[in-house]
Amino acid sequence: MKPLSNVEVDDIHKAFAKHPVTGKKLLFVNASQTTHINDVPRAESDAVMKFLADHFANPEWVVRFKWTPHSIAVWDNRCTHHRAIWDYHPNVRSGFRIQIKGSQPPIPAYA
Q1: Where are the alpha helices (DSSP H) in the chain?
Q2: CA 63 vs CA 58, 80, 85: distances in Å
Q3: b/e per residue, 78-93, with b = 16+ CB within 10 A?
Q4: Nearest to 1 by CA among 39, 30, 21
Q5: Which residues contact 34 (CB under 8 A, 6 or more apart)?
Q6: Domain count for the chain
């Protein structure tokens, strides 16, 4: 896998999952963190990952949050793709990641 900071991360999980609260199906992949799909030929895995990355970037699925003083943005990290866009220069934006106590990660959709 790609190094995150200076630490090598190696994690395997199901790409198809269900939200632990709503039960809705979700794709548990991220183009910047998911390197391939196991048990699929590399060329096919690369094609599927490219398709998903392009799909996730579709403007139809994108929300652009306009930061104003004292803004707060909250999302469910288990089923939302997100990335920071540095469009606030020269201002400073800071963020804190929180997790609700007792919350569960996505659960595999298929055993």
Answers
A1: 42-56
A2: 10, 11, 12
A3: bbebeeeeeeeeeeee
A4: 30
A5: 15, 49
A6: 1
Cα 106 to Cα 79: distance, rounded to the nearest angstrom: 8
Residues in the chain: 111
- Token reading at 83: 């990335």
Q: In this structure, which amino acid lies at residue 77?
A: N
- Which tokens in the block code for residue 109? 């959709």
**Could you give the CA distance from residue 13 to residue 37 in angstroms, rounded to a whole number?**
10
For the chain, percent helix, then strand, then coil, each to nearest 5?
A: 15, 10, 75
pLDDT of residue 28: 83
pLDDT digits (tens, 9 = 90+) for 61-98: 888 888 888 888 888 888 887 777 788 788 887 888 88
pTM of the model: 0.65
- For residue 78, give its domain range: 1-111
